[in-house]
Fold this sequence. Notes:
heterodimer; A: alpha+beta; 46% helix; elongated; B: 32 strands; binds iron/sulfur cluster
Amino acid sequence: MLSQESLAKIDRELTKYPADRRQAAVMSALRIAQDEKGWLSKETVAYVAEYLGIPPIAALEVASFYNMYELEPVGQYKITVCTNISCMLRDSDVIVDHLQERLGIGFNETTPDGKFTLKEGECMGCCGGAPLFHINNKRMCEFLTKEKVDAILEELK
Amino acid sequence: MLNIEIDGKAVEVDHGTTIIDAADKLGIAIPRFCYHKKLSVAANCRMCLVQVEKFAKPLPACATPVADGMKIFTRSKAAVEAQKSVMEFLLINHPLDCPICDQGGECDLQDIAVAYGAPASRYAEEKRVVLNKNIGPLVSTDMTRCIQCTRCVRFLKEVGGMMELGMVGRGEHAEITAYVDKSVDSELSGNIIDLCPVGALTSKPFRYKARTWELTRRPSIAPHDGLGSQIEVHIKDGKVLRVLPREKESINECWLSDRDRFSYEGLNSPDRLTVPMIKHHGEWHETDWKTALEFAAGQLKDITNADGGEQLGVLVSPNSTMEEAYLAKQIAHGLGSSNIDYRLRQTDFRLDGKRMGTPWMGCNIPDLQEMDRILVIGSNLRNEHPLLANRIRKAVAQGAELSLVNPMDDDQLMAVKHKAICTPNDMVNVLAQILKAMSGLQRLSLCLPKSLNDLLETVRVWDNSQAMAESLAGLGKEVDLVSPRTGIFLGNIAQSHPRFTELYSLAEAIASLCGATFGILSPAANSTGAHLVGVLPGEHGLNAKAMLESPRKAYLLVNVEPELDCHHAAQARQAIAEAECVIALTAYKSEALEHADVLLPIAPFTETSGTYMSMEGRVQSFTAVTKPLGECRPGWKILRVLGNTLGLSGFDFDSSEQVKNAIFGGQKPSTVVWNSLNNNLRELIDIQVKIKSNVLQRLGEVPQFQSDAIVRRSPPLQKTRAVQAPVAAMHSQLLTELGLDDGEMVTVKQGVASVLLKAKRDDRLPHGVVRVPTALPVTSLLGDLMGEIEVTRA
Ligand code: SF4
Ligand code: FES
Ligand code: FES
């Protein structure tokens, strides 16, 4: 279900907690699983739960609570734009409009080629860099302008 | 001790008490939804907000520990305002479907809304809708009504031992669900119905049957396992519509097992026998009581007069009341028979006559959860005694070490410190090893008697057994206890074990070496009671097994379906079929009684008064909660009239209380019970430790929902996932050795009888064991519960 590499990573996370507290690693384990699979299917969540020795519903509670976990398939690049207050004041609307126009999709949609998914995000605690988005939960792109967005999209194509 | 004041009333409470507990102690009502005294504190509903002096904001009473000198106001302006706001908030998304909601009339939300809510809502937006989940045949869901208190989640996780429900999503999207399409399979699942403060979780069998205020509520006692749970039976128009727990901290706390809660549906089964019936030339005819009883008495008399009393065998179900058991015994004795027994599923009777008293659990039920070290021998705890399993789970959660010696490794949903999973035969060896290891531990300077020592000479102690002995003695790597509270218990499997005597003697010896409580977990509601009453073979009498092995000419059956309730189904079937006369007191028409001659409709526990004695020796009498169905009569009355008709003396009873008085000789029940409960043996019994054999052994367990006639007829219980078509389960290695594939049809043979079953791989079983359940029509052609068994490809 998960590659040896991912399991090794999960095992590494597990060493950070007491041996009888495997549940503590659930967030990292889900993250590692998502990195490999792109999103968390019910099977993946159940697999992670079993690997940690916790009930599947306990893992699903976590996976469904945090919105950086994807419970539905997403494109290769998931772009999450912050539309919260600071970003809004710094014209995140313009960025959103531009993205939607360039990609031809709205929020929570994926381009037909499966490349991009657009998501709306809440404050990411980096208001100083507003407006901003991140790609696949990992890469934060700040001080966005239309041009900058174009350049990033070009790079990802 | 801390001194605090709530609403001007001073009270002294312990350190760590929460405001809500202190208020409960004072009888001051603080509204609540998520708080429950038996569950962890979640503090997520906020209904319990109160004002506390010197705090700017209202505090949740359920999660705030009191401090010395605290002044708390539950009805001040600020408190009431907070409570009103929370109420309004909770009602935002709650549907106003009270008129069609089963919870209506006993709904916390409804009640508290009346007391704290506003008359109208300011919320004009759309309400959210949550899809219902199908979580099985027992609990019905209306998830839009849920207020996310998570009581159900916490119950299943903390009490049930397995988190089967959870809250997924967040904020407005949060909802309670099982994992994808799973059902809730806990054997305690019905309790979430009681816990749910709203109508989100209600009883499926009871759905739309009645409004709560139309029900008459009467107390009774659960008639299945040996716990003696206190129940409340709810009736409408003379029909039992549901069963709820009565709170009894020292027995069932506020819980009930699903078996006790939902078995009542079997009382309304179309199988119920409602008129006496006599068989004439192979045809059943309905008749009246007088004819039936005279016919029965005539038959019994003829046979006992002609062939002697020893040709009569009396089998009494351990789910019968003490009164029924006593009168059945009187009839047997009156007719000159000492063949009477209630231990229908026992196979080893070598202990008879060697006991000092009535076997019991050796302690009280709550003592279990206080124990430090527990050894359970031969018990599938959750299957046999669901609420007792819960007590042990609590002990384990508090750090107790649990050891198991079992012929299967079913998940008991608690941490097991040591376990020996071995064939039934090897269980004896393991106990011998534990005994030997125990006697060698230096802290216990006790020595074994020479005879036992010699016997154990050649026994080699495995590491695992050594570890169990050390655990029981209190030694331990992490926790080393000088005088641990220890308990050793024999479960149902041990009691139907072919070498019960060895298990018993060894366990008793181990217990006396380490100073442990030694107990027998009685399988049925009145096993202990039937023993006390003396429903046991007399000196030359035959026990339950012998009565079937050497068939009698006549049988009197009290509440027994022979091929489902006896240890050797095939033998029981044959003995009954070939007997000249079989008189059956039964609540049900049943195929198992096809070969009887007279069927007398007996009232089940809800329709008769009577007494059960639980495994802890608690004598609990109950009255009929409803009128007998049709021509049914209480068992004690039938037996009394039968006694009279037979012309026997000592049958002049006008009430079940009089019978009870006769049982206890006019003394207080507790006095009699106290003098008779005793698990000790009079003498050391010859035991054989080493039996090596290479035969396959059957593990014939009674599935939880097949344990007695009522449960077997409860449709909702029969629809649960716990009930599955019987299979022949065995370890994968054994499958390979026998050349079988998982899932293929096999012939399972015991003696001359054989049945076709699916083979199933089950690595929780030891090698050499084939698990084939009993008490099912399909397997009722087979033999001994733990006898030899052959399996071949079909
Ligand atoms: S279903 Fe009932 S018990 Fe469970 S969280 Fe909702 S309201 Fe609470
Ligand atoms: S509002 Fe966008 S990062 Fe804070
Ligand atoms: S009862 Fe205190 S927050 Fe729910």
